[in-house]
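INTERNAL AUDIT FORM
Audit reference: QA-55
Scope: verify that the stored structure record matches its stored sequence.
Auditor: D.O.
Record contents follow.
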Amino acid sequence: MREKDISRLQTALFPSRRWGSGLLVAALLLALYAIVILGLRIERPSLFVLYLGATASLILAYQRLPVVSRQIARDFRDNAGLAAVILTVLLVLYPIVVRDDPYLIHVAALSAIFAVMALGLNITLGFAGLLDIGFAVYFGAGAYTSAQLAIHFGVGFWLGAVLGGFVAAAFGFVVAWPALRVHDHYLGLVTLGYGLMMNLLARNLKFLTNGTDGVIDIPPPAIGSHSFTEPLNILSLSMPFQTNFYYLASATALVGALVSYRLLNSKLGRAWEAIREDETAARCSGIDTRGLKILAFSTGAFFGGIGGALYAHMIGFISPDSFTFLESITILVMVVVGGAGNILGVVAGAIALVILPERLREFEHLRLLIFGLALVVLMINRPQGIFPRTRTRRGPRPGIESIPLEPSADRASPA
């Protein structure tokens, strides 16, 4: 009997164990939520540094206890539906908890936007194993497309964002088609060159991008007569207008995570996984490696374009300085730190990489040094990321008997 069947049998025979694991999952999520809110509420820089040290110590202790970490991972896996419901409720309640500080709501909305883009790069890098260092190209393509359509042609955000995603996917195809002639680090260098080239074009093609002056007065999204720059009324509460963008970006990130999960567990996702692990073996198995790699680039770029459209309409202003090489590196670090291939890990990495630099602005000249040292320590101790990708064993399908292997002639058969 397989381990999965044994776990199901134990759950059926001992329902109290199932309820206990569900309560543990709920308690851990609530505790994590409280820790995050506490960190956001800390105003004094010295206290925030102590908070970061304590949080890092907890993470290291968790990683140093493999028995505990495996048990918690098993509980979350067995109660995935409950965890998803609790997370959704906590996300909905976040603006209400911090409604007295619109800045925290804005930072959370920005985190959700970067989570969408990190999920896109995770498809390219985490699923298919293709290094893309020019991801800001798709970010900018979606932002400029949606913004210019809204300003010059009156196209609403909802259609403009989708069109921006498709334009970004076309850019992904253009980048991937010649770039996939090379592999590994050389592929990263080629995509880096594309990113730098596109940034120069954005600065000089003034009839499309308005050059270094940027695009201003980008209209916000609207639902009927309700503009997203107006306060949001929830029952008897009047929420800051940033709440509109927070809910929009969070919903988009949740949809992106769901789509990523479905892709990962589909036939296409398994083909990408095969390409990532051994491209030669995948090609010998009949997989169209070139076509699927181009599809991975385009799919990830579509996510980047959607994120760019959200960013443009939330900020109301974009320029080539918003889509530089530094932005590409930031998105790449989000994926690597969170754990390439792990959907929840990538989202957590995006949230951390947006919030921490904002909270360390008080140090001004030292914040980049502190941030860089933290990344170096993390890469030394956890090179696979905070939440590494879990490898799943795929056995034979139910109803298909496996063929036993005969013992080797040079090895004595067991008695």
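Auditor finding: record pair retrieved intact. The chain has two domains: 16-97, 102-381.
Action required: none
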